[in-house]
Write a structure and sequence with these properties.
Order of helices and strands: HHHHEHEHHEHHEHEEHHHHHEEHEEEHEE
CATH class of the largest domain: Alpha Beta
Largest sheet: 4 strands, mixed
Number of strands: 13
CATH architecture of the largest domain: 3-Layer(aba) Sandwich
Number of helices: 17
Distance between the termini: 38 Å
Strand order of the largest sheet: 1-4-5-13
Structural class: alpha/beta
Bound molecules: uracil
Oligomer: single chain
Length: about 425
């Protein structure tokens, strides 16, 4: 079938054979299917969906579009975590070293910021010198030696996803369950992991706006894992307000360091502990989630997680001094404080608006070629449910001047809701799917 016929078949809701999907993805990866044809295909999938046979073929085609790592020479059960993307989500930074400190090797291939959501790679690169573009041989050596490595996606691992993901980002086809599932599972399975914990976000700041959609996404990914013989556990988590206080790359590194030293905001610690506990159970270093939780808490409190993080930063060329002298991390001098315009109770902190506000400052990319400013960002000073006085500081904006600041403040205009009556805080954790 020609690319045109494949797009037409999907547009009309006809089933595509595994052979057709594999050839189409291979041709796209090698540049024989044009970006505009792939965009049309993505939009057809967005509206028509995929059945389980089509999805299985898509995952296989994307997984085998490049190298599939073999980590069997590294001792232990290798476990990774992947989040579907959120605002202020820096969990991988404290999580990978904490889990490694408890004896489970963590090979992690992470992404850059996408749309209004931040990316682990951009955050790590705000540490001066930190290198995320490393060879798969060095990646494997580091996991064996230190227990954890976080690197960016290379052109050799799941290259179909690397290309397709960037295209979806600019064609309004990210929030589509079969496409997200294939994207995440193809690159995670290519890492050579034995098991995976998924943090599937729902709410205002997530690609899945409702818990029901997040559940469908989680079940789809757990099903793909099962078919591939990998244990996958998914936790649904709330993304209706930013995670932690900081949104912005170096600011989030600072908050991660606080968490790695046993402090940090309670939601960041709670999520690190919960996902870490699941990883320890899958990695057979904890018999149940309860004992996993206490092991991760100990690793954060006794300095062992921070010590693995220091080793990771050193191994990847980063300035270890900047982890104890935080003034060495990129920062700006200009700070603007947003104050409450009325008294009451915080009833909404729209994560997506905070994400877009940080983007306006330069903390993320509008076009894929944009450079990220590591120093700018936001510090959110309140949480949903907090009582608030008129004039009380709500948010600090770390900025570089007029243009970015103006656009950021415009985004923040609708970001905060205040109610006259008390507000019940939402739960951070939703369902567990395994
Ligand atoms: N994260 C991914 O890796 N892929 C998606 O499609 C969405 C979130």
């Amino acid at each position: 079938m020609r690319a045109y016929d494949i797009i037409m078949a999907k547009r009309e809701g006809r089933e595509l054979s595994a052979k057709t999907i594999k050839k189409f993805i291979a041709d796209y990866t090698h540049g024989e299917v044009a970006d505009y044809q792939m965009s049309a295909f993505a939009m057809a999938v967005f509206f028509r969906g995929m059945n389980s046979a089509e999805l299985a073929a898509l995952v296989d085609a994307m997984l085998y579009s490049g190298e599939v790592l073999d980590l069997s020479a590294i001792e232990g059960i290798k476990v990774d975590k992947h989040s579907t993307g959120g605002v202020g989500d820096k969990i991988s930074l404290p999580l990978a070293p904490a889990v490694a400190a408890c004896g489970v090797p963590v090979p992690m291939i992470a992404g850059r910021g996408l749309g209004h959501t931040g990316g682990t790679i951009d955050k790590l690169e705000s540490i001066p010198g930190f290198n995320t573009s490393i060879s798969s041989a060095d990646f494997q050596r580091q996991v064996a030696a230190i227990g954890a490595c976080i690197m960016g996606q290379t052109t050799s691992i799941a290259p179909a996803d690397k290309k397709f993901y960037a295209l979806r980002d600019v064609t309004a086809t990210v929030d589509c369950i079969p496409l997200i599932s294939a994207s995440i599972m193809s690159k995670k399975l290519a890492e050579g992991i034995d098991a995976l914990v998924l943090d599937v976000k729902f709410g205002d700041g997530a690609f899945m706006k409702t818990a029901a959609q997040a559940r469908e996404l989680a079940e789809t990914m757990v099903g793909i894992g099962q078919r591939m013989g990998k244990e996958v556990v998914a936790r649904l988590t709330n993304m209706n307000q930013p995670l932690g206080r900081m949104v912005g790359n170096a600011l989030e590194v600072k908050e991660s360091i606080e968490t790695l030293k046993g402090a940090g905001p309670s939601d960041i610690r709670a999520l690190t502990v919960e996902l870490g506990a699941e990883m320890l159970v899958l990695g057979q270093q904890a018999t149940d989630v309860d004992s996993g939780r206490s092991k991760i808490e100990n690793a954060l409190d006794d300095g062992s997680a921070f010590s693995v993080f220091e080793k990771m930063v050193e191994a990847q060329g980063g300035d270890v001094k900047s982890l104890s002298d935080l003034a060495l991390l990129p920062h700006v001098e200009s700070v603007y404080t947003v104050e409450a315009s009325q008294a009451g109770h915080i009833s909404g902190l729209h994560a997506e608006s905070f994400g877009k506000a940080a983007l306006s400052l330069g903390a993320g990319r509008v076009r894929s070629a944009d450079l990220v400013d590591p120093a700018v960002g936001l510090e959110v000073l309140v949480e949903v449910g907090d009582p608030i006085e008129k004039g009380q500081p709500i948010c600090r904006v770390y900025h570089r001047g007029e243009k970015g600041l103006e656009a950021c403040l415009q985004q923040l205009n609708d970001a905060v809701n205040v109610s006259h009556s008390p507000v019940v805080k939402e739960e951070l954790f939703g369902q567990r799917i395994a």
